[in-house]
Amino acid sequence: MTEESTRPREIVLGVSGGIAAYKACEVLRRLREAGHHVQVVATRAALEFIGAATFEALSGRPVLTGVFENVAEVEHVALGRRADLVVLAPATADLLSRMTHGRADDLLTSTLLTARCPVLAVPAMHTEMWEHPATVDNVATLRRRGTVVLEPASGRLTGADSGPGRLPEPAEIAEFARLLLEWGLTDDQPFPLPRDLEGRRVVVSAGGTAEPLDPVRTLGNRSSGRQGYALARVAAQRGADVTLVAGTIADLDPPAAVDVRRVQTTREMREAVLDAAKAADVVVMAAAVADFRPTDLATAKIKKGDGEPTSVPLTRNPDILRDLVAQDVPGRLVVGFAAETGDEHSSVLDLGRAKLERKGCDLLVVNAVGAGRAFEMEDNEGWLLGADGTSEPLPMGSKAALSARVWDAVAQRLR
């Protein structure tokens, strides 16, 4: 990453009046911890849910609300000009409606009319409001104008109600904020969140797998699942219908608008992926599966001391990527991942090219691993190799940014 990509940015955090406003405090904390300057602009309804003192303590700045505050500075113009990014969390049905119609009846909507930076709107409302034709039309209009409107999560709403309309978790909102800030640094790359996967069915695998040795111990691979989760998040926000098959992962919240299926072993992952892949347009095997499993499973915990095993016989696990390619589904794209370390004979890239030819997939993401790279890290880099001979470097950046580049290549091939 360049020095420019890590410098503090000016972010306007717009908070509107919904019960999910309490999550804006955590979004604010994460943006501040990333080193950014954050100005909270709240509607008066938002301050009925969260007091100004909370936002001011977390941001280190006064909360702004009305257009008649600090009139001499013409705040709505100054804020719009300074901002590198506007994040609206939560974005209520009312706010989305006022944005669509170009209203300027408070400081937040007035600022939105002057802002020329990316705007990330994160909706939160009851399911009936989210699915109402008026909201559907408003969201479509805002997206057509260039506003990034995230798909909401599904889950518990107010009271006993549950369904789509829940605000995504703050970590996910912060991840998309970082993605938009990274993308805003250059003008020579496509937008990271176009709606170019609408109508497409996508399957992504993530995390590691664990093969039981006895009731206590397992054999497995190091993988936090962050890259697979980022791939699923970005695909869902580009319009895809996403199924995420997750093995052993870090403590990660389910991505918004994604169907998550949990597995443990490589054989369980194979069954789940091949089943979901039958109706898929794209399958991305980002999981770091265990290539081997113990030949015998002990029924009781293996004790240290007399009789302890001196070796553990292993059996090769099925090759999920090769089995996906062997299905030979017309028009379906298969994307593999290769975690390589290189050796005295071959570089990481050489080994990746050999794996691409051996596996027969359409695209292969090659990562150099070890020494604090790739596994269990926030950032990632590598190369994207194509069966057509193409090779594209994936520069160091967030795992969401790498995901966006992968989906760019996929979308181009689907077209």
Automatic annotation (TrEMBL):
Cofactor note: Binds 1 FMN per subunit.
Keyword annotations of the record: Decarboxylase, Flavoprotein, FMN, Ligase, Lyase, Magnesium, Metal-binding, Multifunctional enzyme
Entries under InterPro entries matching the protein: CoaB-like_sf (IPR035929), CoaBC (IPR005252), DNA/pantothenate-metab_flavo_C (IPR007085), Flavin_trans-like (IPR036551), Flavoprotein (IPR003382)
Region spans: Phosphopantothenoylcysteine decarboxylase: 1-201
UniProt EC number: 4.1.1.36, 6.3.2.5
Molecular-function annotations in GO: phosphopantothenate--cysteine ligase activity; phosphopantothenoylcysteine decarboxylase activity
Domain DNA/pantothenate metabolism flavoprotein C-terminal: 197-412
Reactions catalysed according to its record: (R)-4'-phosphopantothenate + L-cysteine + CTP = N-[(R)-4-phosphopantothenoyl]-L-cysteine + CMP + diphosphate + H(+); N-[(R)-4-phosphopantothenoyl]-L-cysteine + H(+) = (R)-4'-phosphopantetheine + CO2
Function description: Catalyzes two sequential steps in the biosynthesis of coenzyme A. In the first step cysteine is conjugated to 4'-phosphopantothenate to form 4-phosphopantothenoylcysteine. In the second step the latter compound is decarboxylated to form 4'-phosphopantotheine.
NCBIfam families: coaBC_dfp
Pathway(s) where this gene product acts: Cofactor biosynthesis; coenzyme A biosynthesis; CoA from (R)-pantothenate: step 3/5; Cofactor biosynthesis; coenzyme A biosynthesis; CoA from (R)-pantothenate: step 2/5
Flavoprotein domain location: 10-175
Cofactors (names): Mg(2+); FMN
Magnesium listed as a keyword: yes
Binding sites annotated in the UniProt record for CTP: 291, 301, 318-321, 337, 355, 359
Record family assignment: In the N-terminal section; belongs to the HFCD (homo-oligomeric flavin containing Cys decarboxylase) superfamily.
HAMAP family xrefs: CoaBC
Organism of origin: Actinomycetospora chibensis
Pfam families found in the cross-reference section: DFP (PF04127), Flavoprotein (PF02441)
Listed name of the protein: Coenzyme A biosynthesis bifunctional protein CoaBC
Region of interest (Phosphopantothenate--cysteine ligase), ranges: 202-415
